[in-house]
Amino acid sequence: MFTAKELRKKYLDFFQKNNHAVLASASLVPENDPSVLFTTAGMHPLVPFLMGEKHPRGMRLVNVQKCLRTDDIDEVGDNTHNTYFEMLGNWSLGDYFKEESITLSFRFLTEELGVAIEKLAVTCFAGDDTAPRDEVSHHCWLKLGIQEARIAFLGKEDNWWPSGGKHPGPQGPDTEIFYWTGMESAPTIYDPADKRWVEIWNNVFMEFNRTTDGAYQALAQQNVDTGMGLERTLMVLNGKTNIYETELFIPIINKIRELAENQDTISERVIADHVRAAMFLLADHVRPSNVDQGYILRRLIRRAVRHGRKMGIKGNFLEVLGAIVIALYQEAYPELMKHPVALLQAIQDEENQFSKTLENGLKQFRKLEQELTATGNKMINGEEAFHLYDTFGFPIEITKELASEVGFVVDEAGFGVAFKKHQELSRQGSEQKFAGGLADHSDESKKLHTATHLLHQALRMVLGPHIEQRGSNITQERLRFDFPHDQAMTAEQKVQVEKIVNEQIRRDLSVTWEELSVDEAKAKGAIGIFEDRYGDRVKVYTMGDFSKEICGGPHVDHTGELKAFKILKEESSSKGIRRIKAVIGEAAL
Ligand code: SER
Q1: Is there a contact between 411 and 385 (Cβ–Cβ < 8 Å)?
Q2: Mutation test of ligand 1: which of 202, 206, 223, 232 has the most ligand atoms closer than 8 Å to its C-beta?
Q3: What are the tens digits of pLDDT across the range 21-68?
C-alpha cells in the first residue's frame, strides 16, 4: 500500500538527493501568466526560466504542483481523468537533458517505487519537419532494459508538449511512460490504443520556442520538464483500476453513496472531482462569479449540485463533502485550513443560490424537450440555451448533459453568439482561456506587467497599505489587477492613481532585479506574496525609488517604455474585491 503522502515524499526526496531544489506549489491561479486561467502544469510558473532567465534556486528543480485542467472536463467520470490533480514534476533548466532525465525517471519507478519493468511501456517522438525522430530517448530506454516491442513512436499529437505544438511558448518532443493496469499479465507488444496502458509520466524535452507567428526557434538552453500524475500513479501502484478507489477519493465517494437515493457511477465521480476542485479554488481565493476563474468555479459547483439532485440527494450536501476534502488534504495543503469556515460557507452559498433556480430550470428544460419532440427537432438553439443560462443559471455543460440524456444536442456556437450579444462574456473571458495555452512573454505583455507593479504601488499610496494583489491577468491589449477594497474608487482616486503611475513612466525609472532571501526582501520593504513560492530565495524587482516587489518577471528595462497609462474600468470582481483594467502606450494617450 502506498499513500499519497509517501508518494509525494519519496518523489521530492529522490530528486532532492539528485541535487534538485524543492519548490512549493504555486497557486492554481497564475500570478504572471496572461494566457491561462489556471495553472495546468508544474511548468507554468517556470516559463520565464525555461525561456532562459536564471532561477534563484538553481538549474534542477522539483515540486508537487496543484493543477486544474478544464479541457478534460468531459472526460471526468472515466477511470483516470480529473479537473483538479496534483503533478509531481522535476525540471532541468539547461542542465541535464534526455539521457539523465529518462534514467532518473526509470530509477525512481523501479528502485524507489519497486515497479516491475514488465509493467512499463513508453512512447517516443516519431519525427517531422520540426524535429527528428527521437533516437536518443529510444536508445536510452533500450539501454535501461525496455524491450523494443514496448516502445512506440508517435507524432506531434501524442509525443509533443503542449500536444500538437500549436500554441506559442516553450515546447518540444516528449517521451511518455505507461503502466499496465490489466488483470492479466502485460502483453509483450505495446499497443498505444489499448486503454489498459495508463500514462503516468511525461518527460518533455523543451528545446524550442514557438513564436506567436508560428515559427519554431531554438531556445537558449535545452530544458527538461516532467510531469507525473499523482492520482494515477497512486492508483496503479495500489493495483486499483480507477482513481476514485484511491484513498484520496474513497471517503468522498462513500459519503455521496450514503446520501444518495439512486447510485450512479458517473455522477458520483463528477461530484467528487468537482467538489475537490472547487475547494482548492476557493482556498486560492477564487469565488463564484460570471467571469474567468470565478465562472469556472461556478460551473464546477453547479454541475456537482445537478448531479447530486440526479442521484436523489436531498438538501445541501456540498458543505459536508467539502469538509471531507479539507480533512483529506489539510496536512499537505495548509491553505485549506486558513479559513475553512469561509470556504465551506462559500460553497454552500453557491449551492443555495443554484438550488433555488435548478428546479424551475429543469421544468423549463422539460417544456422545451416536449416542444422539440412535438416538432421532431433535436437541436436546442443558442437563444434557448442562453435563456437557461441567463434566467436559471444553467452553465452550458448542464444544458448539454440534460440534452444528451434525452438524445438532443445543443447549438453551442449559437449559445456563444447569444452570450456575446448579451455582453456577459468579456472578449478575453472564459471560453477563450478555457482551452489553455502558454505564457506570452512578448514586449507588450512585459510592459503591461511592469505597469502592474506601478499600479500596485500607486494603489497602496492612494487607498492604503491593505492593497495587495489578488489576481493579475495580462492580454496583448490590457492589464487587469484585482485587489481587496470594500468600496468603489472615487473618480478623484482614479485620477490620482493614473497621475502617480504616469509620473513614474515620465521619470523613466530603471527596472532591476536581485535575488534575496524572503527575510531580506521583507527587510527591504518589498511587497508581493511572501508565500514560499520559490523556496527561501526570491526575485525582487525594483523600479527606481518607487516600487519593490517580489515577482518572477520578466519586465522591461525602463518604465519610460510604457509611454502612458490609463485606467479603463474600475469595478467589483467579487465580494470585497475590486478589479481594475488599464492600458498603456498609444491606447492610453
Ligand atoms: N508539462 C508536461 C505535461 O503537462 C510535463 O509536465 O504533461
Answers
A1: yes
A2: 202
A3: 999 999 999 876 666 899 999 999 999 999 999 999 999 999 999 999
459-467: long-range contacts at Cβ-Cβ below 8 A with a sequence spacing of 24 or more? 459/483, 459/497, 459/580, 460/527, 461/500, 462/493, 462/496, 462/497, 462/500, 463/489, 463/493
Q: Is the pTM higher than 0.85?
A: no
Residue 538's pLDDT is 76
Write down the mean pLDDT value for the chain.
91
Question: In the block, which residue shows the cell 469556515?
Answer: 341
Instruction: Identify the H or E element spanning 566.
Output: strand 565-574
Q: Which three-class secondary structure state does DSSP give residue 294?
A: helix
Cα 539 from Cα 520, distance rounded (Å): 11
Amino acid at 179: Y
Which pLDDT tens digit goes with each residue over 493-537?
999 999 999 999 999 999 998 888 777 888 888 988 655 444 566
Q: How far is CA 348 from the centre of its chain?
A: 24
Of 454, 478, 449, 482, the closest CA to residue 468 belongs to 482
Calpha distance 223→96 (Å, rounded):
8
Pocket test for ligand 1, best of 167, 224, 226, 232 (most atoms within 8 A of CB): 226
Describe the strand order of the beta sheet including 471-474 as a list of residue ranges. Answer: 471-474, 479-484, 577-584, 565-574
Distance, CA of 66 to CA of 420 (rounded, Å): 32
- Give DSSP secondary structure letters for 82-145: -SEEEEEEEEEESS--HHHHHHHHHHIIIIIS---GGGEEEEEE---SSS---HHHHHHHHHHT
CA separation for the pair 214, 169 (Å, rounded): 10
